[in-house]
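// run 5 | inverse folding | seed 20
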């Protein structure tokens, strides 16, 4: 009991005496503190006292594929704050290599009797990956909201950045600067947002040779390798499916003795943290993270309360942010 009091007190940032008062149903504790203590019990996996079990806090799982890409902490901040405003407590689940899998996290969240789950990136965005754990959530009627890709065959509501608009704006920006040999660095072939970006590039370019498209894992190192292959083929402009991929492309250019943007122009996607502080500052397509995160929470809250939400996918329009990594093509 003493160990439990200490852990809960540390989690909430209150005294053990305050935790004890909450667990014993005594007065003198604010409603906010009381709810925080009860939420901490749920998060730490402790059973509530019998008289409090009917008041289980409304926990919501927030599942992210990683935290190294700054776009995901940005989504977590917006979604976590919006959940708190709705009286919901976020439980952050982040995957690591060799660590807990997404399916394992879903099992843990079900054990915690979560009221809903938000997925911001993950296996649902890859068409060829197993989706059984998502179907389990659907079978249990757990409200779920997805960010940036739907799952075929499951009618979970989805909030997405419009990939077609993003690529069109990046592509037309490079064309306006005189670039004709433009390459594309995308994620894996089964990655749904990357598929959409490729379709948009084909539409805006009219025709795109196969050797102008490279695929990679979403990392700086992957972007460098993919961009190196494009540079060998003489491209002067590169559109990337994420900011880390774009930073890898900048590194690839420099390793070949090329200057950015004088010799090669690079466009990213996301406008994640500090992209205005890179060298050069990165031209990128900004996802409306604030609006998307808040919309995802509104949808989830409506589902939790038993309401209906509009069918289909909500598409949010991105914004091209022009900085120093793009310039007129050198003749």
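// decoded
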């Amino acid at each position: 009991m003493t160990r439990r009091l200490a852990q809960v007190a540390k989690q909430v940032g209150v005294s053990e005496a305050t935790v004890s008062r909450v667990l014993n149903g005594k007065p003198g504790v604010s409603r906010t503190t009381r709810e925080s203590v009860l939420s901490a019990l749920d998060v730490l996996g402790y059973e509530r006292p019998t008289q409090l079990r009917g008041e289980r806090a409304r926990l919501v799982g927030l599942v992210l594929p990683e935290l190294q890409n700054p776009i995901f902490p940005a989504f977590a901040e917006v979604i976590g704050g919006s959940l708190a405003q709705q009286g919901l407590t976020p439980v952050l689940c982040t995957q690591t290599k060799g660590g807990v899998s997404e399916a394992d996290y879903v099992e843990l969240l079900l054990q915690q009797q979560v009221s809903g789950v938000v997925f911001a990136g993950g296996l649902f965005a890859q068409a060829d990956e197993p989706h059984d754990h998502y179907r389990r959530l659907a079978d249990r009627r757990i409200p779920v909201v997805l960010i940036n890709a739907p799952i075929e065959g499951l009618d979970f509501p989805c909030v997405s950045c419009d990939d077609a608009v993003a690529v069109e704006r990046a592509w037309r920006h490079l064309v306006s600067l005189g670039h004709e040999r433009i390459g594309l660095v995308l994620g894996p072939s089964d990655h749904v947002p990357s598929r959409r970006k490729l379709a948009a590039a084909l539409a805006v370019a009219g025709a795109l040779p196969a050797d102008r498209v490279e695929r990679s894992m979403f990392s700086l190192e992957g972007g460098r390798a993919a961009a190196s292959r494009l540079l060998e083929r003489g491209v002067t402009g590169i559109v990337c499916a994420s900011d880390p991929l774009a930073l890898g492309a900048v590194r690839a250019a420099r390793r070949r003795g090329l200057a950015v943007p004088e010799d090669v122009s690079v466009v990213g996607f996301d406008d994640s943290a500090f992209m205005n502080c890179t060298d050069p500052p990165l031209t990128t397509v900004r996802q409306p993270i604030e609006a998307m995160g808040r919309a995802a929470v509104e949808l989830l809250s409506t589902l939790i309360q038993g309401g209906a939400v509009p069918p289909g996918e909500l598409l949010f329009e991105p914004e091209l942010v022009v900085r120093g990594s793009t310039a007129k093509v050198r003749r």
